[in-house]
Design a protein that fits this description.
223 residues, 45% strand, mainly beta, 20 strands, three-stranded antiparallel β-sheet
Length: 223
């Protein structure tokens, strides 16, 4: 009889770490032949830099998804924005034509044996020519999934400013309007309190319960 239990077609290996102040979760999900992604591994809380390998045992079209949830808490304000999951490298063996269909450039750092990929700090984009990290201009936010070139830094809207890590735009409850004769300064700090709204429970096709939770305020903050 053929040994089908230990047959290995390919493997996916990735190096990751999570930095969390609360109950964050990192999910690794796999889909086969366009079917829905299924979680195969979950990591909770902060995890030091480590490697994980998933063995593929069938010749099929595979999709791999990483999902990160900062917290399951529903609280007012935008919190825990410094909690992150970092994927440092992904290696897939036995792919079609022995190469990836495309790749994205990474930022480089010098080391004793040459150069290696590194993560840019929060709010920094990757310059395609020099492969170095550069801070976004003031009052812009960085597109999380396409951090290449200064065009990845999108301007904030009227009367808003960016936080220090260029992850969001907010209004501090002050607003100025200039005319040829004078400038009008407005202060709405007395309206700074937020209101929270929560909908009823909803369910996914697999029976998982979730809620829609909204926090509304005229003013914002850097979190």
């Amino acid at each position: 009889m053929a040994d089908t239990e230990n047959k290995e077609v390919a493997r996916v290996t990735f190096v990751f770490e999570t930095i969390c102040s609360v109950n964050c979760e990192l999910y690794f999900m796999v889909g086969v032949n366009s079917r829905a992604n299924t979680p195969v591994e979950t990591w909770k809380g902060s995890k030091g830099k480590q490697s994980y390998t998933y063995v593929i045992k069938e010749n099929a079209t595979m999709s791999f998804t990483w999902a990160f949830q900062r917290t399951t808490f529903h609280e007012t304000g935008r919190k825990y924005t410094t909690d992150v999951a970092k994927i440092h490298s992904i290696n897939v063996t036995n792919v079609m034509d022995r190469v990836a269909s495309y790749f994205r450039p990474c930022a480089l750092e010098a080391s004793g044996v040459g150069s290696s990929c590194t993560s840019c700090p929060a709010g920094y984009y990757i310059d395609r020519d020099s492969r170095t990290c550069h801070s976004c201009p003031p009052d812009t936010v960085l597109k999380a999934h396409q951090p290449y070139g200064v065009q990845a830094c999108e301007p904030c809207g009227p009367a808003t400013k960016s936080n220090k890590i260029h992850s969001l735009c907010y209004n501090d409850c002050t607003f100025s309007v200039s005319t040829p004769s004078r400038t009008f300064d407005y202060n709405f700090l007395v309206l700074a309190d937020s209101v929270s709204l929560a909908g009823g429970p909803s369910f996914t096709s697999k029976g998982l319960k979730y809620f829609h939770h909204f926090t509304l305020s005229l003013c914002g903050n850097q979190e």
